[in-house]
Amino acid sequence: MSDAQSAGPASRTPTIGVFDSGFGGLTVLRALVARLPQARFAFLGDTARLPYGSKSRRTIARYAVQSAQFLTREMDAEYLVIACNTASALALDAIQDAVPVPVLGVIEPGAEAARAASTSNDVLVIATEATVHSHAYSAACQAQGLRALEKACPLLVPLVEEGWTDHSVTAEVIRIYLDEIRRDAATQGLKPDTLVLGCTHYPLLRPLIEKVLAGRASCAIRVIDSAESTADTAVRLLNGRAAQRNIETSAQTEIHCFATDSVDKFERLGPRFLGRPVGHVELIDLGG
Ligand code: DGL
């Protein structure tokens, strides 16, 4: 091997691309940074076209592929984590076909974590309308030997976007949704002991969700954050690759954020999701 070859990719810190429809996916990035503090990340929030959760599979796939290609082509990302549950549910195959790097979505890690947590093997999943209609979580849970009941909770994303993560109105909305899904579960003879948060924004509501559950449930319901389980899976996958050596020896966390619109809002609200300042957010144009 020549010097040029040995000093090439082996001495370079690979970029991990993280993509979401908005900045809610920073909850996944936060979980990744906690596990890979010396990695380099490029995060793209497609804020111009948010929300994905109310759009069709075709549109979601088109947007998600453009975003993934930006991260691999412009940012040279060598791994992609699709933090967006909706894009993972409806466009993972399309993204995998469109980019030449490993792509990890959030659905399977969420289902695996649910299997590890559940003893009754009956789980509840709350997510956007598009994710629920795709039944991607049901299928992934079924593959784990679980029965899943899914419920769309479309009011929760705007409430989080509004910053109402500890608000009595949000608590009441959560109470109504959870009462409905638990009633449906009882009607179907399910005994759920696990709740999967199947949307990037819901981890910010976790304390409120757990409070509502504690005041309601006759038996304890464990909450699974797919951001955490996705980060665990990503680290396992990266550990299996030679590039992990480079990630561990990089000097410090590097995060470069991009958005397709609403840069000011991203910079203002992003720290809530990331748990640290997001720095300068670069505005990019992905076309239509
Ligand atoms: N990122 C989306 C998800 O995790 C929520 C926001 C949206 O609807 O685009 O499903």
Fold blueprint:
Blueprint: H1 3-6, E1 15-20, H2 26-35, E2 40-45, H3 57-74, E3 77-82, H4 85-98, E4 103-104, H5 107-117, E5 122-127, H6 129-134, H7 136-143, E6 147-152, H8 156-161, H9 168-187, E7 194-198, H10 206-216, E8 222-225, H11 226-239, H12 243-249, E9 254-259, H13 263-274, E10 281-283
Parallel strand pairs: 1-2, 1-3, 2-9, 3-4, 5-6, 5-7, 7-8, 9-10
Helix pairs in contact: 2-11, 2-13, 3-4, 5-7, 5-11, 9-10
Bound molecules: D-glutamic acid.
D-glutamic acid (DGL) is lined by residues 20-22, 24, 50-53, 84-86, 128, 131, 157, 199-201.
Beta content comes to 15-25%
Indicate the radius of gyration in whole angstroms. 19 Å
- Helix percent reads 40-55%
Low-pLDDT sequence parts: 1-11
Under CATH at level 1, the class of the largest domain stands as Alpha Beta
Bound molecules: D-glutamic acid
Question: Could you name the key traits of this structure?
Answer:
13 helices; 288 residues; 6-stranded parallel β-sheet; Rossmann fold; 2 domains; binds D-glutamic acid; alpha/beta; 10 strands; disordered N terminus
Could you explain how this protein is built, in words?
The chain is α/β, with parallel strands linked by helices and 288 residues long. The chain has 2 domains: 3-106 and 228-283, Rossmann fold, CATH 3.40.50.1860; 107-227, Rossmann fold (3-Layer(aba) Sandwich), CATH 3.40.50. It has 13 helices and 10 strands. The chain has helices at residues 3-6, 26-35, 57-74, 85-98, 107-117, 129-134, 136-143, 156-161, 168-187, 206-216, 226-239, 243-249, 263-274; strands at residues 15-20, 40-45, 77-82, 103-104, 122-127, 147-152, 194-198, 222-225, 254-259, 281-283. A 6-stranded parallel beta sheet has the order 4-3-1-2-9-10, with helices on both faces. Helix 13 (263-274) links the parallel strand 9 and strand 10. Helix 2 packs across helix 11 (226-239). The chain is globular. The chain starts with a helix and ends in a 5-residue tail after the last strand. The chain binds D-glutamic acid. The site of D-glutamic acid has 17 residues, from helix 4.
